[in-house]
Amino acid sequence: MRDNNATATSVNARTVSMSLLLAGAAFMILSWFWPLLFSGKSQWSDDQAKQFAQSSAHLHELIDQYSEKSPAKRSTALTDELRKTHDEVAELRGQLASARAWPDRFAGVLRYVGIAAAVIGATVFFATGQHT
Q1: Which of 43, 73, 74, 94 could lock 99 by a disulfide, CB 3.0 to 4.6 Å apart?
Q2: Taking the model in full, what pTM does it have?
Q3: Burial zone of 33 (CB within 10 Å; 0-12 exposed, 13-18 middle, 19+ buried)
């Protein structure tokens, strides 16, 4: 009876360790292809892209207007609008950078989960003496 329990435990440990090793390898492989499969476009809408393009164009127009005037003739309204538009473009640029970086960040998570699963699987495999 005791041999049956030991055999069942041995089979369970082997199954768990191999499953973790395979899952770890699968996650690590998937992490290399994830950024190629998903570009982050789903994190950045067409409306955001339009708003970014319009705000950027408006910012360039304001910079041209600002640079054409001498410092004495620059109005505070133009300066305030330039600062406001610059801040808006900076915020949208940050959102765009975050959307572009999302697939790489997720790939990093997959990679570390894969490494952890593989290490745990190998540890279980060698700790239970299943390598013989």
Answers
A1: 43
A2: 0.60
A3: exposed
